[in-house]
Amino acid sequence: MSTPFPTEIWFFIARLALLRPWTSTQFNRPPGDFDGIEGFAQTLPVFKEIVQSLKAESFSISPMELSRAQIEDSTPRRVKCLQISARNLDESSEALHHSQSFFEKLAGFSMLTSLSFSAPGPLLQTLHQLQKLPFANCLESIDIRGTCEFESGADFAFDQSQSLVVCFPNLLRLRLSKEAWIETERIPEEVVYILASFFGGCRKLELFSIHAALDDDAWLEQRSAHMRSIDHLQPSEGYLRYMGHCPLCFENYDHANVVKKENAMTRCLAEKFPKLSEVRWANLWAKFMRDECGQRSTRITREGSKVILVRADEMKE
Ligand SMILES: [Zn+2]
After folding, report:
1. For 98-108, how does the pLDDT look when each residue is reduced to its tens digit (9 = 90+)?
2. How far is the CA of 151 from the centre of ligand 1 (A)?
3. How many structural domains compose the chain?
4. In this structure, which residues have their CB less than 5 angstroms from ion ligand 1?
5. Does the residue 280 lie in any domain?
6. Which of 17, 144, 253, 257 has its CA 20 to 30 A from that of 112?
7. Which parts of 199-289 fold into alpha helices (H)?
8. 252 CA from centroid of ligand 1 (Å)
9. Domain presence at residue 89
10. Full domain range(s) for residue 36
């Protein structure tokens, strides 16, 4: 049975019908609402094929499964959004996802536009290996969590030259975070300069979310003290208090200092990446840290060569 429109139009309509709201607290686009087009899929065989094709565009696998699994040849080529996530401690070997087998299998996903990668392993070394794969030119979004130590910068000098540049020419969105995030990490300003240089080949980058805070060490220690102390967490009134409402912590907090650092480092990144329109830093005082909930955003606009910053707290610089 034929339809009044070409298959491509129905494909486009079905893709639109799948979309869920995508908020600023979610880095990756939410999965498609396939329940919502179940009836459509049942109407005609061609619609069922369209829905199956759309389902095949997203794929989730663990590093160990990817290294060992027998995947049909046609599967990787249909995937546009790939999520790789270690499922248990058995996958905690750094060597696992750096094995030849792992990257050979990964190379088969030649049409990837979005990669979410959470597994132990030096974060920037992993990115360096990813850029050698066929999909590096297609990637529009990278969300990578590794064993990066922002504070020490240990992962940033792996080739001893610090002049290494990775190139993902069509990358629009980039998130860097530490695997198994427990407490907010600190990122020194000098490491931000290294990152700006390292991603120098990503000229179309629009969003850069760094899950680390520019606060001084003392405030990260204060955060730990707050979490450990019953006087901070549970005052005499008996309720559970979070740090942002804690007078013992907040009274002496130098918010202006971290604003100054965030603005300076955001401006540094804005000057490096000509399309950059938003930078997010970890907010030490955030109540929730999941996904992008704990990130503080600064928007970037440009007037000629002039960079204008608009912070989420609406202070302009
Ligand atoms: Zn406190």
Report:
1. 677 888 889 99
2. 23
3. 1
4. 226, 232, 246, 248-249
5. no
6. 17
7. 217-228, 230-233, 247-250, 255-272
8. 11
9. no
10. 1-55
